[in-house]
Design goal:
Helices cover 66% and strands 10% of the residues. With 391 residues, it is α+β, with helices and mostly antiparallel strands. Among the domains are: 131 residues, 2-Layer Sandwich (Heat Shock Protein 90), CATH 3.30.565.10; 127 residues, no CATH class. It has a 5-stranded antiparallel beta sheet. Helix 2 packs antiparallel against helix 3 and helix 3 crosses helix 4. The radius of gyration is 27 Å and the shape is globular. The two termini are 22 Å apart. The relative contact order is 0.09.
């Protein structure tokens, strides 16, 4: 019982100098290799701890010792750095050591990225900085499985109730909640696409560089999207539209896709955000980014604001996406209660074929890009995986 409340994992003392800071940083990566952090987040944590130690080193005499320990408190992993002496808050002394403002902003960004905010305290003549690591989380697949099981349980319970009760729960509770969740995600996604494109375009730094690479990337992206969709529609139309005689997939859909491409320029600036039209958002983001890049000196403050706005929206969307299993539960529960799941199951062969064709073409594209750029295809595929924790 006591070991669950507090359990020391590792710790040692070392003299505060550049060499020992480097050794400590490498040991820290090894000790926290099984923590619920991605590798890049672990590197950011290393940089944060190095910054704390360097700030202390620049404020004290040679030979000063620092102790660190890694422990678990109530099942949560903590990292603690301690140094005896006068009170020196390493989290507030960046300016005193003439560190660039960009570096201080980067440190703050790292804290937000990995969800770890160091806390400083001074107690009984000792400076203490604590880092509380994120809690262990279930994988997205496990969360989705739990959502499916819970929706089946909800359906079983509601099937024992009178029919009008089940319909009331589905129509008046589940449906508006699901619509609100998806509306929130759609809103954030549309804004994030626009802000990310503007930031990326301005980040090119030079119109010549943008003209050289940006145009090719944009056209390649649109060509791949159109090609994948067109091929999948044609194959599904041949296998299902002609054989079964239905009109689910036919050549007219290709014309609709073509019309969407022609409508890349929106009628007004608000409509793409309301409709979530990706093509129009791409056009607007790149066009606005080009304008800011052209008048970079005059719009410097606006560019900084857009960078911060993009970071904030991305974080908000990440939080919402981490709750996607709730949307799975609500959606599946509605389909079970309304009896619409059977209609989807009847068309599952078309859905699976469409998804399979698109996935195959995507994989072939990844292999081709990795071969052309001399980059490991498996590593590229891993980098495209959704964010998940492992322990």
């Amino acid at each position: 019982m006591l070991s669950f409340i507090y359990k020391k994992i590792n710790g040692k003392d070392f003299v505060l100098d550049a060499k020992n800071i480097d050794i400590f940083s490498e040991e820290l990566e090894h000790l926290l290799s099984n923590a619920p952090l991605q590798h890049e987040d672990l590197l950011k944590l290393r940089l944060l701890t190095e910054t704390v130690l360097i700030n202390w080193m620049m404020s004290v005499d040679e030979g000063t010792k620092v102790s660190f320990q890694i422990y678990k408190f109530m099942g949560r992993t903590h990292l603690e750095l301690a140094m005896d002496g006068e009170a020196i808050n390493p989290l507030e002394t960046l300016d005193d050591f003439d560190m660039p403002t960009q570096f201080a902003e980067m440190m703050q960004s790292f804290q937000s990225d990995i969800g770890i905010t160091p806390v400083y305290s001074y107690s009984h003549g000792s400076n203490i900085v604590k880092f509380k690591l994120p809690e262990k989380e279930l994988s997205p697949l496990a969360k989705t499985g739990m959502a499916v099981a819970l929706s089946i349980g909800t359906y079983a319970v509601c099937s024992l109730l009178p029919g009008e009760w089940a319909q009331f729960i589905s129509k008046e509770i589940f449906e508006p909640t699901f619509s609100m969740f998806m509306g929130l995600m759609s809103m954030l996604a549309a804004v994030m696409v626009f802000a990310s494109l503007v930031s990326s375009t301005v980040g090119m730094g030079d119109r010549k560089l943008l003209n050289k690479y940006g145009r090719g990337v944009f056209l390649y992206y649109q060509l791949m999207n159109f090609s994948f969709t067109a091929v999948a529609i044609v194959v599904c139309s041949l296998l299902f539209g002609i054989v079964s005689g239905n009109n689910v997939f036919n050549a007219a859909l290709l014309v609709e896709v073509y019309k969407i491409i022609l409508a890349i320029i929106p009628n007004n600036i608000i409509k793409p955000f309301l409709d979530g039209n990706t093509l129009q958002l791409l056009f607007m983001g790149i066009a606005f980014g080009c304008f800011l890049l052209t008048y970079k000196d005059e719009t410097e403050s606006l560019i900084k604001t857009i960078y911060q706005f993009n970071f904030t929206i991305t974080k908000l969307l990440t939080v919402v996406c981490n709750k996607m299993h709730y949307a799975v539960y609500l959606s599946l529960s509605m389909m079970l209660l309304n009896g619409s799941l059977s209609k989807i199951v009847s068309a599952v062969n078309i859905i699976l074929l469409f998804a399979g064709i698109t996935a195959t073409l995507t994989l072939l594209s990844i292999v081709w890009i990795s071969w052309k750029c001399k980059y490991n295809a498996w590593q590229m595929l891993k980098n495209m995986e959704p964010y998940h924790f492992t322990w």
